[in-house]
Design a protein that fits this description.
DNA-binding, homodimer, 9 helices, 68% helix, disordered N terminus, mainly alpha, 217 residues
DNA sequence: AGGACTTACATACGCTGCGTATGTGAGCTA
DNA sequence: TAGCTCACATACGCAGCGTATGTAAGTCCT
């Protein structure tokens, strides 16, 4: 993937006022450029890690230069932020789709958490969202979108509290701790020699822990 | 701390076959050099972050050059690893001291967890152990010492299982999830506008969660 | 005791990669 | 259609890392 045609050696379209066709409006061109940069960065960050990914390399891979990057995102961190926002939005969508399919609110909550663990096993998510993101941009709870995933979990928990299924704890606090536990579990599983066994253990313990939230077991 | 006399401006002792005194044995000099490098790096990593800390700068601060660093630690990552091992050992000591003071095994476990949260609020620990460490060196569970803190928690939990206080779950898995939850809580608290309130919420939720481990509430 | 070897560093060099200042041509506006 | 704006590309300087090399102090052996 990545090079499409490889014929667009020259950035932009070089010369000729684009004789015909391709008469894209300005806004569209910009959105396209941004999307290309984000996609290229996302791939580079995922495979090489943030620090090791060269801006020159992956911008060139997108048929652009660092000039475009600085123009649109300010700096490397800005681009990482954009990548993270995109990924977080996708994760949030996936999570809400999953929880909406559940039959009970409690099951929705559990399904969400399990899905989060599974997503965290994906190398791209683990590398960018869980490892480099916090290190480069600081605590995720301070990010602009404030981690849509956390908000989703918080909402699920609040429903359970309202329904009286779980004890009246602070929903956001619970979401954060639960999220931390699942995150840690995911890292552990992903790096274990025997992911299957480890995964089973983790889920069992997870269910035991959250059973502490229930009003009645 | 750190600079002792500040008179040793010149690296080593420059010239003169050390006229008298200071006739330290080789091993001691080396250990001292290593310790100075680790201390300098630890301070730089904590205050500026791993990526922003210049090896030239902090080695010079220790009265040495990058040559010494590469000789003893291989590269920047090697030095980070050494720093982390030192800090982990210290944390482990602090934790075991705390748990040994508790009256019951359950209280020991809870005290340990709370202490871990409190330690995670210290900027040095948060920055190096929780943010940069995982990003640069990968999953903590794969580090050489394998995080002595986790082992301590695992041991505490195993005691509780043996005593029949908590349900017979997998001790290590529980330790990891609990550790992840506390870590997340710590990050949240440390970056919150109102740490006190947030802290209380977090502890409350934490206790609720781990109550799920108990055989009988 | 003194010479040869080893080692714990310092010094010198090249290269990569980021950030900024500047140039330029294609679109929007009047 | 002239002029302005903006989305990029190009050019440059500099910091920081890694390596190759130099050197003096310590250690070993006789």
């Amino acid at each position: 993937m990545a090079e499409k045609m490889a014929d667009k050696i020259v950035p932009r379209m070089a010369s000729g006022t684009t004789p015909r066709a391709a008469a894209k409006p300005r806004k569209e061109m910009i959105a396209e450029t941004k999307a290309k940069l984000i996609a290229a960065a996302r791939h580079a960050f995922a495979t090489q890690g943030y620090a090791e990914a060269s801006m020159d390399d992956f911008t060139a891979g997108a048929g652009l230069t660092r000039g475009a990057l600085y123009h649109h995102f300010g700096d490397k961190k800005g681009l990482l932020m954009a990548v993270i926002m995109q990924m977080d939005a996708e994760m949030s969508d996936r999570l809400s789709a999953i929880s909406s399919r559940a039959e009970t609110p409690w099951q929705a909550f559990v399904d969400e958490c399990v899905a989060f663990i599974e997503m965290s096993l994906e190398p791209e998510i683990q590398r960018i969202m869980l490892l480099d993101g916090p290190a480069v941009l600081g605590d995720p709870s301070q990010w602009p979108n404030q981690s849509a995933c956390i908000r989703a979990t918080t909402a699920s928990l609040q429903k359970l509290i309202d329904k009286g299924t779980i004890r009246p704890v602070d929903a956001e606090a619970t979401a954060r701790l639960v999220n931390g536990a699942t995150l840690s579990a995911a890292l552990w599983i992903a790096n274990a020699e025997d992911p299957d066994t480890v995964s089973k253990k983790a889920v069992e313990v997870f269910l035991t822990l959250v059973s502490g939230l229930l009003v009645e077991r």
